[in-house]
Amino acid sequence: MKKKLVMIVGLLMVSLSFVTYGKKFTMTVGHAQPVGNPRYVSLEKFAKDISEKTKGEVVVEVFGEGQLGTEKEMLEQVVAGTIQGMRGGQFDFSPRLLMFTLPFLTNTRSQVTALLNSDLAKKVSAEAEATTGTVIINLCDAGGYRQFSNNKRPIKTPADLSGLKMRTNGMKTIDMTFQAMGATTTAIPYAELYMALKTGVADGQENPWVNVQGMKFYEVQKHFTAVNYQFHPDPFYVNATWWNTIPKEYQDIIKECATEMGIYNDNLIDENSNAALDVIKKYGCEVYVPTAEELKAFQAASTPVYQQCVKEGILKQEELDEILKIVANAK
User: Fold this and answer.
1) What is the pLDDT of residue 15?
2) Of 119, 158, 308, 328, which one has the greatest count of Cβ atoms within 10 A?
């Protein structure tokens, strides 16, 4: 009788463990974008999809608007395991991703998609686990093509950037590009940028239209140039230790939902960019559209950045050749 009772208790414990097994998986994800931004909206969809497809056994808690800190601080939290994930153009721990941010590398959505879905992108993303202890489960677009703005004068040629103090997020390729055109740079966290522009800590900045509109940078900037000089990958970093503790079934679901989220995010960017630009124009900001010849001048001025990145080990020459081939063959 005693032996039978022990067996029953044991079976109940196993059964209870199985019932609560999936319930313990909580995925806390941080990001810096405000309500309405494509990253914000697509991550909300991601959380909803995960809940539905795992029947509530994996819960995704999303904290936007920089509630958990700057993008760098959030990535540090992911590496440490304090939170499970973050999305954002933060490459301090994975600088090889910068190869996709070379200035004037692409000019169409199909080219961007081809790069982010390439074997090279998968290889570079896989390197993150060994170097940072994170798994990159998706690469999408961080906001669309990036534009210049400032409070001093219209930027129609590279020479117009000379002497301006331009804000960057600390990303090397942004610094290199501005410096190649004669500007100085200052690193300012995204959440602090509005006030920095308002008080003159920086003369100008660079961001996609959806970010400018969402963060209301147009209220503190006079002159914009539609230069489309760069796009940023938006890696979805997940703590590798946490990732490797969850069942493969859930990993597959999370990856599937992350892929769907990335596609949705990029579609939202394309749908919302023109509307964001209209808001900026209606506010009274000047938006200058360079001619084809003027764009060639910007491209020529930033060409040294390519070899500078090779020299600094961000990518190898053969990888640069591969990138250019991917872009050229994109349909």
Assistant:
1) 32
2) 158
Q: How confident is the model at residue 95 (pLDDT cuts 50, 70, 90)?
A: very high
pLDDT in the model for residue 92? 87
Topology (CATH level 3) of domain 2-90+133-141+234-273: D-Maltodextrin-Binding Protein; domain 2 (3.40.190)
Tokens representing 56? Answer: 């509530």
Strands (E) located in 188-246: 204-208, 223-225, 233-239
Sign of CA dihedral 84, 87, 91, 92: negative
> The tokens of 130 are what?
């060994």
Mean pLDDT, the chain, rounded, equals 93
Asked if domains 2-90+133-141+234-273 and 146-231+274-329 share a fold, the reply is yes
Residues 6+ apart with CB under 8 A from 199: none
Query: CA-to-CA distance for 136 and 12, rounded, in angstroms?
Result: 38
The C-alpha atoms of residue 3 and residue 137 are separated, in whole angstroms, by 48
Report the alpha-carbon distance of residue 97 to residue 54 in Å, rounded.
Answer: 31
* Model confidence pLDDT, tens digit, residues 53-72: 999 999 999 999 999 999 99
Between CA 132 and CA 136 the distance in angstroms is: 10
Q: Residue for token digits 């599937």?
A: 256
DSSP-H helix ranges across the chain: 2-21, 38-53, 71-80, 109-116, 119-132, 172-180, 193-199, 209-214, 240-243, 248-282, 292-302, 304-311, 317-329
